[in-house]
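User: Show me an example of a complex going from sequences to structure tokens.

Assistant: Sure. Here are the input components:
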Amino acid sequence: MIRHVRAKWLITYAAIFAGCSAEPELPQGVTGDPERGRLLLRQYGCGSCHAIPGVATARGNVGPPLDKIATRVYLGGVLPNTPGNMTRWIREPQKVDPLTAMPDLQVPEQHARDMIAYLYRLR
Amino acid sequence: MRVRLSSVLITLATLLAGGAVAGAIVLYAGFYNISATHQHLRPTYWLLKIGLRESVQRRAREVVVPPLDDPRLAGRGLALYRAHCAQCHGAPGVAPDPFALGMTPAPANLAHAALERTPAELYWVLKNGIKMTGMPAWAFRLTERDLWSVVAFMRELPRISAEDYAARARATSAVDEAAAVSSEPTSGTGDAMRGKMALRQYACTTCHSIPGVVGDQAPVGPPLARIATRKYLGGVLVNTPENMVRWLRYPREVDPGTAMPNLGVSERDAWDMTAYLYTLK
């Protein structure tokens, strides 16, 4: 009984001091499959240009690292970070910013949706 | 009664731990009122004022004051004062702008400050700014000569009436500062330590996390860790020193779509920033 109460307090304290929340809150419109997204990020070779936490071999330093990309304000330095914009940026970066070095990788809509489901968990 | 050393130590440690816990509770529970409508308590205010005075006096000892009597110097100082100081500090017969009236601490009346402080102290504050107040550092904005010209004008300030100020202000044309800043020495190889300071002075950390530079580190743009080895800058320019300088100075000219603004970075400052950023491998 005493041990139980103590544990409860410990958790409360830990929560207070860490300011933590259990589940990361996803923005509306993120409906894809994050596990599939993680796989796809590897399959499209994103990691040869970007460092992506949780994606093995994604250690590139050609473009910016994608850690905490969920909290970044702009995508590609040009688009406000919304699920719609992230999908668009992944699918047709050159149409968004004709000057960008990021290539159009012919990513189908559903693949992009899964990728952003993973990326929005990086916070 | 004998007091054991160990019990003294235990008591001290308990008090210290209790203090730390109380402090943490005040900190994390948000009990401290950060509002600018809440003035400090009188003793706190007094303490901060002494700390400010002593810190400035100590550091101003090293400053060598040049001759300030040339009236052209004070004339230029007036133009700069109108462009950069009067908004917060006001002037004889001129109120500060509304935003400045809401600041805590309220920006000082400089006619009074000019009587209280030596020219060396005025110069030091102008150049370095004051942490945790609204006073910015002008070291990266004004040349040495311009800093001193503002000091020269401030020395006259206590003797200028509202009527005189208005008349002199009417007779003064706007200053051409772009010319002033670009006349600073530039070099092809930067000074990394100065660059690190420049990265803070151009508020780069309000959008980027930069290893070694303490700041907000907000993820507005990409983090700059390992930027030295990144292949592209801003996603558009191949990473070379010349391109880095160009990007830092004119990002909107390089990529009109970028959210990164032109910050008026001088060439020298850009080279120094580049030197620092290239240490981040």
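The lines above are the inputs; the final block is the predicted structure for all two components together. The two ends of chain B are 65 Å apart (CA to CA).
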